[in-house]
Amino acid sequence: MKEPVKINKDLIKAHGLTEEEYKRIKKILGREPNFTELGIFSVMWSEHCSYQSSKS
């Protein structure tokens, strides 16, 4: 079994997220996100999808 991917500043940046967005993700989840969750938020909040800016 593989070791879980450690979330660090480089990985957060590679997903196109800011540190503030990462803090918001942790607040929403109530914990550190795993690699898959980080990817999901990254896609949902990307400029292409515009989910973050279209939320009320």
UniProtKB/TrEMBL annotation:
Domain Phosphoribosylformylglycinamidine synthase linker: residue ranges: 14-51
GO function terms (MF aspect): phosphoribosylformylglycinamidine synthase activity
InterPro entries in the cross-refs: PRibForGlyAmidine_synth_PurL (IPR010074), PurL_linker (IPR041609), PurM-like_C_sf (IPR036676)
Pfam families named in the record: FGAR-AT_linker
A biological process from GO: 'de novo' IMP biosynthetic process
Name of the molecule in the record: Phosphoribosylformylglycinamidine synthase linker domain-containing protein
